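FIELD: query
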Amino acid sequence: MRKQHLIGKDVQDGKMLNRRLKQSAFILTKNKEAGFTLISLLVSIIITMTILAFSMQILHVILTQNSSHSFQTLQFFHFVEDELLGSQQFFRDDNKLAIINENNEKVTYSRYGNLVRRQVNGRGHEIMLRNIAEYTLEDTANNQILLRVETEGGQLFEKKFSTE
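FIELD: result
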């Protein structure tokens, strides 16, 4: 009796034939190697660095928003001080800082809503400072005027100007 009927199509003369799997888009082959490769490590490092870079930018934006109010207010004090240096006289008029400049014009700094505005001879509307909660002027000892500005964020700034 021949054993030919027991022999399958992959076996010939007792030996297994080397058959290659056909590559197809519909057949997934399993790779028995597990672990990280250099490419997967590089991809994970790139993703981590991208997340860190964006988080640093967001943190920078959050921190500079508070300091921008400080810068604006200090710049406002600098503008007022420059105008006072070139003036003939200045005084407090209600809650307005009134300055008589070298051209004999009356320049006033006053609160207008949540703004501080500058006017010349009661005309114009030059915005000097935004987002303020309080703007007060006080006469102090030694012929000084205290200008106090509080921002909507709660930061308080004060500057004294001597009237002499």
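FIELD: remark
Residues 1-7 have pLDDT under 50 and may be disordered.
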